[in-house]
Amino acid sequence: QKEVEQNSGPLSVPEGAIASLNCTYSDRVSQSFFWYRQYSGKSPELIMSIYSNGDKEDGRFTAQLNKASQYVSLLIRDSQPSDSATYLCAVNAASGSARQLTFGSGTQLTVLP
Amino acid sequence: EAGVVQSPRYKIIEKKQPVAFWCNPISGHNTLYWYRQNLGQGPELLIRYENEEAVDDSQLPKDRFSAERLKGVDSTLKIQPAELGDSAVYLCASSLGRGYYEQYFGPGTRLTVT
User: Fold this and answer.
1) Could you give the CA distance from residue A73 to residue A23 in angstroms, rounded to a whole number?
2) Which residues of A touch B103 (CB under 8 A)?
3) Residue B76 burial by Cβ neighbours in a 10 Å radius (0-12, 13-18, 19+)
4) Is A2 within 8 Å of chain B by CB?
5) Which of A35, A56, A71, B4 would you label with B18, given CA atoms 20 to 30 Å apart?
């Protein structure tokens, strides 16, 4: 089982709709969770961080965390074509004796005009 | 505020040749990371520095990879000799403090080994 799992997609939504991106993780003691956006040929860009159960909103983005279910999600409201990118979920997870930021493989989102 | 700077942006080398990547983190960021990202995958950590100390290098292939961070600022990642399987994007990231606070990535170096 991969430590951080995401649906690879592609996920297509029409412009103006809500895009919902999901991520599950296996390390129960993880405390830090991040969403990165990566445009094709570019490096990952941090867009959201969340540390506590519940919702965290930043503009059109809402991150949701449920530690009991080991689940973190990202909602993008009023999706725009410029939101088309790969979204990476990252979790502070154990790796051997250390803890490190472990990334999922990403979900490719396409927003259709 | 300037972001993480990396060079070169692209590098094409033949197998068995050496290659080096350079990174300058965001000013004031004490923690520096080197990641490797293969196509269609998320970044994978190679090494983490706290100031000039390598505190997590468990995933660095030490037979051919080496890294240094002299004076706790700039860092260099080297591969010698390169293999075909080393073709990937090498990303440098930095963060303010210990542990895994928000990490900010540089533009990366795309390495192609032929």
Assistant:
1) 6
2) 34, 46, 101
3) middle
4) no
5) B4
Residues of B whose CB is below 8 A from A105 = 40-42
Tokens linked to B4: 């993480």
Separation in Å, CA B69 to CA A19, A106, B4:
41, 30, 15
d(CA A25, CA B46): 21
Query: Tokens 């973190």 correspond to what residue?
Result: A72
Q: According to the model, what pLDDT value does residue B24 have?
A: 97
Residues A44-59: tens digit of each pLDDT: 999 999 999 999 999 9
* CA-CA-CA-CA torsion sign (B28, B24, A43, A32): negative
d(CA B82, CA A47): 34
